[in-house]
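Q: Could you write out the predicted structure for this multi-component system? I'm mainly interested in how the pieces pack against one another.
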Amino acid sequence: MAGQSDISFARGAPSLDIIAVDELKAAADRAFSSDPKGAFSYGTAAGYAPLLEWIAGRHEVPEEQVIATNGSMQADAFLFDHLVQPGDTVVIEAPTYDRTLLALQKLGAELLAIPVEVDGLEVDALERALSSGARPKLAHVIPNFHNPAGVTLSLDKRRRLIELATEHDFVVFEDDPYAELRFEGEPLPTMLSLDDSDSVVYASSFSKTVCPGIRVGYLAGPQALIKDIRKTATETYISPSMVSQSIVAEFCRSGAIESSISTVKEALHERRDRTAEALERELGDDAGFVKPEGGYFMWVDLPDGTDGDALEMTARQHGVIFVKGTDFLLEGGESSLRIAYSGVTPAEIDDGVGRLAEAFRELAGARA
Amino acid sequence: MAGQSDISFARGAPSLDIIAVDELKAAADRAFSSDPKGAFSYGTAAGYAPLLEWIAGRHEVPEEQVIATNGSMQADAFLFDHLVQPGDTVVIEAPTYDRTLLALQKLGAELLAIPVEVDGLEVDALERALSSGARPKLAHVIPNFHNPAGVTLSLDKRRRLIELATEHDFVVFEDDPYAELRFEGEPLPTMLSLDDSDSVVYASSFSKTVCPGIRVGYLAGPQALIKDIRKTATETYISPSMVSQSIVAEFCRSGAIESSISTVKEALHERRDRTAEALERELGDDAGFVKPEGGYFMWVDLPDGTDGDALEMTARQHGVIFVKGTDFLLEGGESSLRIAYSGVTPAEIDDGVGRLAEAFRELAGARA
């Protein structure tokens, strides 16, 4: 296979063809012309005011309940530092985003992993754990088009989760970067909008709707908590990139974001379909997956006994890369993998899934 | 004094008239056109590669020894988190940058404050402390046009500091954002360039040479340390703003930075002179200060017994704002203040110092 370049399903990142490069250039030019002082001077740690206003409007919360950061992982880091002490129990989904897992482990949190089902977090299992005495400080939940599981949390479960949080006094961290990328079905309300007990902190990002390199994310939540986090942000970096945030503000306010979202959705919808078709064609019953209603990711279960480590290595030799299921879990996931279809063209998807199937059959043949 | 607007000597920030707005717009346009993938995609935590290359070239170190961050305070935070455990001794200058003081206190460092003289840190006093058993992990030093003291560390002291660091096994943190803004006299070599024992970590920023709102700073230091900090940065925010860094890279590589530095230096030189003249004219022997050879700040000692808190309040009533000396010290500084002349026009300087002198005389009159 010399000379053939690798196809990567590994990174949850958009390909350049679905980034609105010309509109970003135009937004930067307008932002820098109309408000050079705002873009080029020190700002406040809360973020660029016109962007805060736009985000607050989008979520129908006061601006005082929002902080815009250098990417949403930075927001997560502030929130975790603020709420989680070593030994504190934190509910995570199983599987969950590998960087979240790592960040919480680094902080010394006691992780309580609750399985994810077709309609999101198994709230019954969480309720049982709470009844048995678990006292979490925080529950991290990715409600829409889950990374890595691809599933979406049902409305009923959203409501029950808020009830449990209120009753047992923990914070729901609603980590929602993919919400705008729904291909089909009806959008569900955010837990932030359903909550009237200050139990929810919402995080999102412009990485999936504008571009990742701009590094703009945000938190919206209870005012007292946001105030504390703004203080930590001031002490950490004075202010986030006003240049980045002024471009995003202009991109949003001009409506360019809506056409960018359309472009991204259309492309990812096609890529999801192509991935699902290719998996069915190439692997048939050997590949179990939930077709996500939006977002970047598909979680694929291969037959029990499949050795994910060996498959990853063999797949690399065949020129295709993915992330092993075990990376997203404290235990288990050996026969699963995550496919990110966000950064590959339809033709690459066909090729890549073909190579994956070859690798799978080579391994299965060796086992037989 | 109704209707008169406040004049602020408080914030170390450039006024908009000395920011190269048109050149920044042009640099953004070129950066986004020539490398949209680099500007708009996720990068690595090390920073935007062409910028790392430029910084590495400027300091004659390998790129592996550089990390570019969202402003240099973020770099400081990474470094402090990495090197300083609660209870560790850290050498600071007295006075020093108030945010550094705060960051180190928050980390639980044991602060060893060493006075600053006309030629910078009193190295003899540090040597005595080391002889008496002090075992610092880190010494934070602002070598050029000190914030807030305005002084510059002599070449001899730079050399002695590195010797002490090597001998007593501590890291010198050379915090050097103002180096490029020298109005007169010969530039001195950085401690980074003088060090051959991996004892120096150097930090700087483009806030003073490009603009603050872009939030781009960097560290250059021992490769192993930079590697660790890159890892922490990955875990914190994946990558810094590639949009900001690509603009800075283009601004630097095109040479726009050199003309920007000239503009800033010329304006600040005039502002420094105007401030010094106004202080002499308005306060005469009551104001003691070292005329800085560059940078943003002047440290003004008023007669012993001047109550800085009262002066600050009275000055506010007269429509002029500054930062009290006590903010930059663990103890002392009651009769001193910091004047930042970076964000005010020459006419404002005359007015502002006039108001300060009125406030001072009002207070002195009340005391007499």
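A: Regarding packing and overall arrangement: The two ends of chain B are 25 Å apart (CA to CA).
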